[in-house]
Fold:
Amino acid sequence: MLKRKFYDRLKEWKNSENKNCLLVKGARQIGKTYIIDVFARENYSNYIYINFVESPQHKDIFSGELTADEIYKRITLVMPEVRFVEGDTLIFLDEIQECPSARTALKFLAIDGKYDVIASGSLLGISYKEVPSIPVGYETQIEMYSLDFEEFLWAVGYDEAAIDNLKAYFDKKEKVPESVHNNMMKLLREYAVIGGMPAVVDTYVKTRHFGQVQDIQQAILDSYFDDISKYASNTEKPKVKSCYLSVPKQLAKENKKFQFSVVESKGTARKFGNSIEWLRDAHFVRLCHNVSAPDFPLTAYEREDQYKLYISDIGLLTAMYGFDMKKAVIDDTLKGNTKGGLYENLICDMLTKRGYRLCYYRTDNGSVEIEFLITKDAEVIPVEVKAGNGSTASLNHLLENDNIQFGYKLISGNIGVNGKKIVLPLYMAMFI
Structure:
């Protein structure tokens, strides 16, 4: 079993007072069903599992009257073996996007409060319009991601003590011993190739076979294309797929702002804008908007028409470039804009999984460009990403701003501090 931080989030929810129903969001095949199932079996004496894809007939439970008592009664009609024990029963409604009325029913189950309820779905963002009534105030939404770099380290044999020892260098801003640093960079490159999809990580841990890793990643990508075919409208299907497939090309450009002309010659936002929204709502990509000023709050300065797109799992991006990319990344022989774009996506992956909402800053003339801006304690922190150890003119310029207290430069080298600039190895993004 792969150790997941999300298990602790579920425990916190279970132990909270006056809890709502929990709605777990996230892309397909990141392990939502698996970890919730393990949590349910280990923490409740009674567990009721309803999957609306595997058992579409169970949608009938939520047809008609949606009072809690009526729902419990209908559950026993289709699942006579179940038992309800107040305070010790979990109802897990999986693939809830397939049953919009079940989403509405969360309100009444939360008001009743006799039993804990978790709902999960992979394409909730694109199916919300079908829900008769969103249970605002009665569901707690939480997003789950594929494995982060720390979870990957656990999977390949590192314990928490080893990672704590590494974090001590981050906390003290002391150089990491060269042998440790080189090994962590090697592991980070492996993570960039494998990513965090549980089936991929599990296969790698068991086999160390990159060919099998690529096969599973391609199968996941194929399943995403199947979802596009199934859930996108007929007019949107080819446009959504084209936008998704263009992301690796977009990231290989010097100016990584998403350009519709890369999707199609003379492509426009009017034609492809809805497709970008579809990919975002399906959690296939992450949007990172440009801001007109690097000031708090960043959301007030976002430019809605200027953004970068990143693939939601770094391993899937590497797989989209083809199998040969794996060797180039592992051997650290990759060069040029493609390398820069891949490492940007890697850091986006790591910072997003740390809970940050990312923006970037680029002046109209391109004289200043910072890969990411994050907010912590109402302060804006610039994060510059260098796949190697290049110059940081843009970061230096930004740090002259009195409102910026400090900034990070992430590089392939070791730790260092120069005034307001904190230089960190790329793998230490997991501690920011």
Summary: The radius of gyration is 23 Å. The mean pLDDT is 96.
